[in-house]
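Deviations from the work plan: none for this task. Representative record:
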Amino acid sequence: MESNRELMKIKNLSVSYKSSNGTVHAVRNLSLTIKEGETFGLVGETGAGKTTAALSILRILPEISTESLAGQIIFNGEDLLKKSRKEMRKIRGKDIAMIFQDPMTSLDPVNTIGSQIEEMIQLHTHLTKKEIRKAAEQMLETVGIRKERFSDYPYQFSGGMKQRVVIAMALSCNPKLIIADEPTTALDVTIQAQILELMRGLKEKYKTAMIMITHDLGVVADICDTVAIIYAGQIVEYGTVEEIFYSHQHPYTEGLFHSIPDIDVAQSKLKVIEGVLPDPTAFPSGCSFHPRCPYVKAKCSQIEPDNRNVGNNHFVKCFRGTSEEGCD
Amino acid sequence: MADIDKKARDKTKIINIFGETNETWRRLKKNKTAVFSLFVLIILAVLGIFADFVAPYSYFEQNLHDLLQAPSRAHWLGTDQYGRDILSRLIYGTRISLSVGLIAVGLALFAGGILGSVAGFYGKRIDTLIMRFMDIMLSIPSVLLALAIVATFGTSLPNLMLATGISTVPGYARLIRASILSNKEHEYVEAARAVGAGDFEIITKHILPNCLAPILVQATFGVATAILTVAGLSFVGLGLQPPIAEWGSMLSEARGYIRDYSYMLISPAVTIALTVFCLNTLGDGLRDALDPKLRD
C-alpha cells in the first residue's frame, strides 16, 4: 500500500508569529518527506509547533499574526508557498483535506451536516445537485452514519459521530493527503479506538496519505509508518515507527516514552520530563532541549547539534553517542 | 415493523426540518406578550395588504356632509375635517407605515451588513476606514440627516425610506462587525477555509447565520424606530403629502382640532403607540427565545 513515490516534501519550513513579547518562532527549519499512501506521525507536546506546521501546508495560518512563512512545501512537484490564493483554494479540500482536533467546534452549528458535506463536494466538482446529494449520502454511509440523518444538525450528534462526519467531509473529494490534527484527542478512549480503526480502513481503501498530528504515542504505534518527533518547532528525531519505538536515540524521545505508565510495573508516580517548553520568543542557545536534558554537557548549550543519521532514514538532532560528545 | 420504523423516521424528520427554528418558536410561544404582539402585527399587516377590500371608505374622497363626526356606527372612529373616514385612513396608513418601516430597515441591514462584514472580516486598514466613516455618520443627528435628505430629494415614498434607513446604517454596521469579529475565530471557520471555501461563502454561509440572533432582534426594534421616524417626518410636514394617509400626517392634521375633536388625534396616536409597543415586545421576546443562556 505504501509506494515509494514522494507525495510531499517540506524543505526548511519556518513560521513565526508576531506577539507583544516579540517574534514567536513556532516552526524552525522543518524538513520532511511524505510518500504516497504513507501515514506520517508528527509527535510533540502542546505548543511544539505541530498544528502551525499543518496549517502552513494548507496556508490557512491566521493572517493577522503571521509574521513570516519561509521554506518550500513541494506537493506534486509544485511549491504550495508560491501558489496564488485562488490556486490554493482549489487545492484545499480537493488535494489536501484537514480533520480538526475538536469535532464539537469544527462543524458549523447552524448548517445541517449534509449541507456541509455537500458544500465540500460542490466547491470542487461540477456535479449536479442530485449527484452531489447522492455522493454526500454515500460518504455518510461509508463512515457509518445512516443517510436518514443527512438533514440533522451537529448538535444532534455525539462527539464520535461528529468526528465521523468530519472524516466523511475530508474524504468526500478523494484527497491525496489528509492532515489529521489530533483527531482523537477530544474523544473518549473507546470512541478513539473506533475512529482510528475507521480512519485506518478508509485510508487503505482510498490509498490516501495522512499526516497524523498527535501527542499520543499509542495512536502513533497504532497507525503510523514514519514518525517525526518535534520539539520547540524543530524535528529532533525522525525515523520509521519501529526505529522510533525500539531504537530511539534522542533524550527527548526517551523522555516521552518514559512518561507512559507501564502496565506491568507498580508505579506510584509518573516519570515526567522536568521543566517546560522553552519560551518561543527566546530559545536557549545551542540545543533547544539542553535545559531539560538529563544528559546535558557543556557543549550542548553552545553549539546547536546537526541532524545526524543513525540509520537508513533515521536521524537525530543530538550530540549524544558521538565522539564529539566530549569526555564524561 | 418496517412500517413503524418508517413512521418514526418521518416524525423525527419533521422535527429536524425545523431544527433550531422550531426550538426558538417553542420558547417564544411561552412568552404570552410576545405572542400577542406577533398576533397584533400580523393583523395589522393583513389589514394593510388588503386595505382596498377591508377599508369601509376611501382614504381620499371628501364628504363635506359628514365633517368632523364623532365615532358612530357608520364611522367607527369618526371623520376628519374633510369628512374622510378615520378608520379607513388608519387602515391605509398601516400599509405605508409598515412598508416604510420594513424597507427602511431592510436597506439599512443590507448596507450595514455589507460594510460591517467587510470591516469585521478583513480587519486592518479597511476596517479602520469603514468604521471611522460610520463614526462620522453617527455624529450627524439622525433626524437632521433624514430632514436633509427629504428636503433635498423631495418627499416621495422611496426617499422617505432612504431617509429613515440611512441614519441607522452605522448601528447595523457596528453590530454586524462585532458579531463577525467574535464568530470568525471559531474553528468551523478555519474548517470551512480548509475545505477550500472562499471569503464570500465563509461570510454568507457560515459566519452570518451564526450571528443572526442579535441582528434579528435589532432589526425588530429598528422597524419600530423607523415607523416613529416616518411619523415624525410627516408630522413636521416633510413626510408624504396629502391626501395620502399616513399616521404621522394624520396626527399633524388633527393637531388643530385637539380641543373640540380629540378623537381625531387619539386614534392615530394609539395606533402608532400600539404598533411600536408590539414590535418592541416582539423584539424582546425574540431576544429571550434566541438566547442560549436562557434555555430551559
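Chain A is about 30% helix and 25% strand.
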